[in-house]
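Marked as duplicate of an earlier ticket. Keeping the data here for the record.
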Amino acid sequence: MSNSQNYTTQILEQTLPFTLKKHQSLLRRRLGSSDTRLQENKIVNLNLCINKMDGVVINPGETFSFWKLIGNPTAKKGFIEGLLLSQGQVSTGIGGGVCQLANLLYWLVLHTPLKVVERHHHSFDPFPDDHRVLPFGSGASVFYNYIDFKFYNPTNQKFQIKLWLTEKQLKGAVHSDMEWKYSYHIEEKNHKFIQKDGKNYRENEIWRRVVDKKTGNTMNRELIVHNFSEVKYDLVIDNEQKEENNI
């Protein structure tokens, strides 16, 4: 188990030599009828977070905490109004939009031996898919100061998170000081929409397969998360899909 007091604080400018995983996500997506200005504000907030987090090293036995590194996202620190999802509702607030960074970090961590020790996800599906490339429900939500994202390093290696912005993308990578002998593959199963008690729900499973790089053999397959979330937007589904998804 992780030592809750042993949080990572080291920022290293030099990038560790071995890359485990890279990922990127669009900075601007159509999110229902939400104000596009909030997405531009989100980019400001993401940049402030990256300045606190880029290059962080998780040493053996250390725990990464999103909010331990970022601190309270206040206006005094330069954070501005962005989109917030809380308690089944879409709203706005100072520091909103940084869940996109938590989503990216969670996806990266799933492709490493790092162990997630605190992760939350919204209990509802707020917006229709628009340029989605990852399985539904494969993100992590954060809300200062009681909903955090934390992961722990149980290995004898160092791991490093690198983060940066381009004009259109939030990008990140996980590096290590030594080669890691396994690769990780994330698979979605049993995705469907369900109608229950007059409401629509979205359900799926996210599985992780661990593969030995040298032999190609699957060493382990595990269920990471089972999602069952209320859909907050109008579904447009043809008759064939309705039969398939029991709607």
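See parent ticket for discussion. The chain has four helices and 13 strands.
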